[in-house]
User: What shape does this take?
Amino acid sequence: MKKYNKSEIIINPILSRKDVSRSTNPNGYTFSEEEFQAIKKLGGVLQRIHNRLIKEGYLIEDGVLYAPDGSVEYERPEK
Assistant: This one.
């Protein structure tokens, strides 16, 4: 059996930094400019993936990804 060190896992090191300047929008969300740009880049990557899937004949409907032949490629797990 593997043993793991008990140490804090930092998923996003930007969030743990105290010196990052932040601004709060009217909805109460707080992002640094660096975080905002990272989210924007991720959105662009996801959009290109989505567009490629549609172009190749895949269908995305209600959390299910259908292959061009109609078979189910992926189904979002139930919560």
